[in-house]
Every structure is written in C-alpha cells, then in structure tokens.
Amino acid sequence: LLDKLSREMGYTLHVVPKVSISGMDVSSTRIRELLLAGDVRTAAALLGRAYTIGGPVVHGNHIGHEMGFPTINIDIPQGKLLPKFGVYFGYAQIAGEQYRAMFNLGVKPTVGSDKPTLEAYLIDFEGDVYGEAARVSFVARLRDEKKFDSLAELSAQIEKDVQRARAL
C-alpha cells in the first residue's frame, strides 16, 4: 500500500531492513513482551537504553520512612506500559541529578494499594523532592513482589534488596 501510494502521491518510499541484536529482531512487540515478562535487561539492549517511567513525585503513606527506607512515589502516567510487577534496581533522575535507586512497581501486597504504584528508595540520599519531576530507569529485576506477614519481615527483605542493589 505504501509503495502504491508513493507513486500516486509523489513521495519516495525507503524500506528499512529489519534490525537484529544477538539474533533477536528488534520490534516494539518484542520489547513490550520482554517488559511484561520483567526482562528489563534484554528490553534495554533492544531499545538501546533503559526503559523509563517518569512523573511527578507525590506523597504516599510514608510507611517506608517509618521503616527506615524513605521512598519517593512517582505518579505513573495513565496508559504507560508497566513492566512485570516486582522489585528493580535502576536510576532515578530528579532535578538534574541521578541517583542509584531500588524501586517497587506494583500493588504493595503487604500494605495494600488499590492501583499500581511506583515507589523508589534513593540509595544514600536524604532530602525533599516532593513536586519535582522524576524519571526512573529500569536496569535489573531483583525479585517478584511478595506479601510479607509483617512490616518487620518486609523491612528485613528490603535491607537484603538494598545490599543486592548496591552490588549492582
């Protein structure tokens, strides 16, 4: 159809060959499948960059702060493709600065949420960034979301997750 229309409308059609990386065809469909499976590393290889989600930093329930892991909550844009729910390592860009971050994407099964949230713990950061625009880059998946029996169990797991994130 594009070839036919190019002759009728007088434009030049250039057909671009498929691009493959490590034997995988690069396509938006393949990238979406990888993200939905939580394979952010392979998705990044096909994208040529880490997958990102950005939005304003908003107030949450402040439970992370009470547990010793103050987090920022990023308002997820409506319609944004969300990778598989879970805990990830990556980077957060806020006000021109970049921070190592560990973040949870999902419904926070231990404390409960009625909609998906993106909550990031900025490693070795102290400060107030409410209202700032933030962009989170997904680098590596650490684990699935999990419901813990207590906040103490969740806190112990977060400490393990932070140590693993530091190693990355």
Q: Can you give a write-up of this model?
A:
By secondary structure, the chain is of the alpha+beta class. The protein contains five helices and eight strands, in the order αββααβαβββββα. It has helices spanning 2-9, 28-36, 40-47, 63-66, 151-167; strands at 20-21, 24-25, 51-58, 71-74, 86-94, 97-106, 117-122, 133-143. Strands 3-4-7-6-5-8 form a six-stranded antiparallel β-barrel. A two-stranded antiparallel ribbon has the order 1-2. β5 and β6 (97-106) form a beta hairpin. The longest helix is centred in the last third of the chain and has 17 residues, at 151-167.
Write the layout of secondary structure elements.
Elements (H helix, E strand, L loop, with lengths): L1 H8 L10 E2 L2 E2 L2 H9 L3 H8 L3 E8 L4 H4 L4 E4 L11 E9 L2 E10 L10 E6 L10 E11 L7 H17 L1
Antiparallel strand pairs: 1-2, 3-4, 3-8, 4-7, 5-6, 5-8, 6-7
